[in-house]
Design brief:
Oligomer: single chain
CATH superfamily of the largest domain: Uncharacterised protein family UPF0261, NC domain
CATH architecture of the largest domain: 3-Layer(aba) Sandwich
Shape: elongated
Number of domains: 2
Number of strands: 14
Largest sheet: 6 strands, parallel
Helix content: 40-55%
CATH class of the largest domain: Alpha Beta
Number of helices: 14
Order of helices and strands: EHEHHHEHEHEHEHEHEHHEEEEHEHEH
Distance between the termini: 44 Å
CATH topology of the largest domain: Rossmann fold
Structural class: alpha/beta
Length: 404
Amino acid sequence: MKTVAIVGTFDTKARELQYIKALIEEKGMQALCINTGVFEPQFQTDISNREVAAEAGANIEELANAGDRATATEMLSRGLEKLVPRLYAEGRFDGIISTGGSGGTALSTPAMRALPIGVPKVMVSTMASGNVAQYVGTSDIIMMPSVVDVEGLNVISMRVFSNAVNAVTGMVRDYKDIPDGDKPLIAATMFGVTTPCIKEAKAYLEERGYEVLVFHATGTGGRSMEALIEAGFVKGVLDLTTTEWCDELYSGVLNAGPNRLEAAGKMGIPQVVSVGALDMVNFGPWDTVPKEFKDRNLYKHNPTVTLMRTTAEENVGLGKIISQKLNMANGATVLMLPLKGVSGIDAEGQPFYGPEEDKALFDTLRNDVDKSKVEIVEVDQHINDPAFAKAAAQKLVDLMSAVG
């Protein structure tokens, strides 16, 4: 029988969790109840808080007696993060659901993130209508807004809980096991202003027997790609759109963190890298652009996205950080420079056309990249020219063929 794990504080939220359990059983499935409360549960659970705490080397009685809620939550979260993947590997459950406010969400989601991609995961949370990046990370957790507090049962919360149960049981019931393909996986990065390049390169690679995973370079996309590379799924990387570094360095909203552009080098995976969309920093709607940037070259990409052209000085900074990351590589690495423009709006007649700014970027890369580790290939084409895309794709094919 299919089983859904219910993670929650069965000491304080027993009524709500019992309701979820009953809904799961109505669907003809079993519930595996995992208690993450500090105190004794209001009804017997399948996995006790004592077991969860022990996974983190803690004693639940000591945690309860200390009266330190933050420490107790942290230890239970650590224990849950270790326990849940093991229970799944043992076949104890097929999907997972949890509910909570900020504390419950922070407690449960690390364990959900530790599960493989594809395992059904639903988090009903008071935090789900805001920025959920810290909870979801690079996983496929479904965050469902609770609308009202998860305290108590009422006509709103019961409707939300019912929909959440329908979601997780539906995914469990109709789960399709998709086997790994026999084509080598390539990770590629794309932005709206580099789409023609990546579409051309993707088609070129697929014609040659590769499967291409495209990641939108919006912060989450870059982090997701880096995580999959480190997890060993990817055999080659076509990282032509490194724009997330603009936002990381210059206060944009789509940054991917300080470890972007490290995973392929660390894993020794062949990579072809370029400077796609390094002409822009991303902000939200026009009126959200920080006041210190109001006099800069701004471009309204759409009602929710405003772009700011990077300066020559900022491009020097970008060149230095990209050089630093590429110089760390342990595997075959090529840097491709499109000399006639780095994005769809960095071309003659376009709003971000900037030969001087691009020259500052290219010169810095030429000077700072370690040529003994990284091959620099300069192409007298725009990044979206088919010739550039095909050259980059073929270079990656060559690198991958060389390592077998």
